[in-house]
Design brief:
9 helices, 23% strand, OB fold (Dihydrolipoamide Acetyltransferase, E2P), 3 domains, alpha+beta, Chloramphenicol Acetyltransferase, 18 strands, Dihydrolipoamide Transferase
Length: 422
């Protein structure tokens, strides 16, 4: 019996997946562990396997189009098996079949009751008797700027179908001979421009669309306020040098900040909380997310139970997760479940900034660069390495005093890293 392959839920915020690539086509034999498609979610590009053996009978949407979670991506069954009942149960099967060969209706079946998906893809269009072309072919011709009247159809009775448009190459028209002018013709005036206006439109990726949606909701629903603090990092810089002499993995400043935040959250659990509408959820575990920039937007790999891990363990895990995020190999369980987030732009030479809270967190820490700065101590001007931090807080969950005490504890850990070891 034919089985529908549905769009899986690949992240906690996913509403639909966009087909990044089909690895199989209609008519191919597939095995349960074959990768039939790559799906772009709001977080990453994931591979999808059917988990059934058979022949690929139907593809719901073409590359670049979206399928809602639990919607039909494809149908797999025995060669020639009727799958229309599956589409009918789904609501008529309005998706486009990625095939130009539509099964003919049986003699006992009226033409108007032919499978709905095939009708959408390449059914004859009786509205235009002069040009026999399927609606899909006409749509593609319009999108590509192809004069459909110049296309030779390969379908039934010369009907133009999708593959005719895909393979069409316009012929170069021969220039018609022009009569010689009876009198000299003035040369046209051609305006020469040293530059020209223009623009490039880039489709919004699924990841960036969801980021925009979630952060807009966060910014305009959560009452943000901001707390800023300057940290003297001289001791942290010396401690990091000493740690890296013995650590099996190089520890970065971001690793130090992850560890310090995790330990400070343990002392200030109200900051490790989430607004749930009717109640506030105080998390007993501490999962630290770190925002990572990728081409499609931002993704937040999560170091789970960060307060229970050593600096070298955090360095290994954070480094692995960041690499996975940038190569699109990160898995859903590795970028969900955060209870606090860090956004670090210090490596990009940013002095300080404010960040939008990453739901479901109630706070996010924005980290700038460490800069050698003259300061006055005991009446003397000395140079210290300063780091500026900005804590964005959701006022529904975290009050100013609560956020301030958290930053004071964080400052103690970063200015005296040895306190994180005792």
């Amino acid at each position: 019996m034919a089985e529908a392959i549905r769009m899986p839920l690949l992240s906690d915020t996913m509403k639909e997946g966009v087909i990044a690539e089909w690895h199989k086509k209609v008519g191919d034999t597939v095995k349960s562990d074959d990768i039939i498609a790559e799906v772009e979610t709001d977080k990453a590009t994931m591979e999808v396997m059917p988990y059934v053996d058979g022949t690929l009978l139907y593809i719901g949407v073409e590359k670049g189009k979206g399928v809602p979670v639990n919607g039909i991506m494809a149908i797999i069954g025995k060669p020639g098996e009727d799958y229309q009942s599956i589409l009918t149960a789904e609501g008529g099967g309005s998706a486009v079949v990625a095939s130009d060969t539509a099964p003919a209706a049986s003699a006992s079946q009226p033409a108007e009751s032919a499978p709905a998906a095939e009708v959408v893809a390449d059914a004859p269009d009786s509205s235009d008797e002069r040009i026999k072309a399927s609606p899909l072919a006409k749509k593609l011709a319009e999108e590509k700027g192809v004069n459909i009247a110049a296309v030779k159809g390969s379908g039934d009775n010369g009907r133009i179908i999708k593959r005719d448009i895909d393979s069409f190459t316009p012929a170069v028209a021969a220039a018609a001979p022009q009569p010689a002018p009876s009198k000299p013709v003035a040369a046209p005036v051609v305006a020469v421009y040293t530059g020209e206006e223009g623009h490039t439109d880039t489709p919004v990726s699924q990841m960036r669309r969801i980021i925009a949606q979630r952060l807009a909701e966060s910014k305009f629903s959560a009452p943000h306020f901001y707390l800023r603090m300057t940290i003297t990092m001289d001791n942290a810089m010396e401690a990091r040098k000493a740690i890296n002499l013995v650590s099996p993995e190089k520890v970065s400043f971001n690793d130090l900040i992850i560890k310090a935040c995790a330990m400070a959250l343990r002392k200030h659990p109200a900051v490790n909380s989430s607004w749930m509408g009717d109640f506030i959820r105080q998390n007993h575990h501490i999962h630290i997310g770190t925002a990572v920039a990728v081409d499609e937007g931002l993704i937040v790999p999560v170091v789970k139970f960060a307060d229970q891990k050593t600096l070298s363990q955090i360095a290994v895990e954070a480094g692995t997760l960041i690499d996975k995020a940038r190569t699109k190999k990160i898995q859903p369980q590795e970028f969900t479940g955060n209870t606090f987030t860090i956004s670090n732009l210090g490596m990009m030479d940013i002095d300080e900034f404010t960040a939008i809270i990453n739901p479901p967190d109630s706070c996010i820490l924005a980290v700038g660069k460490i800069a050698a700065t003259p300061v006055v101590e005991n009446g003397q001007v000395v140079v210290r390495n300063l780091l500026k931090l900005t804590l964005s807080c959701d006022h529904r969950v975290v009050d100013g005093a609560v956020g301030s005490r958290f930053l004071q504890t964080l400052k103690t850990y970063l200015e005296n890293p040895v306190t994180m070891l005792v």
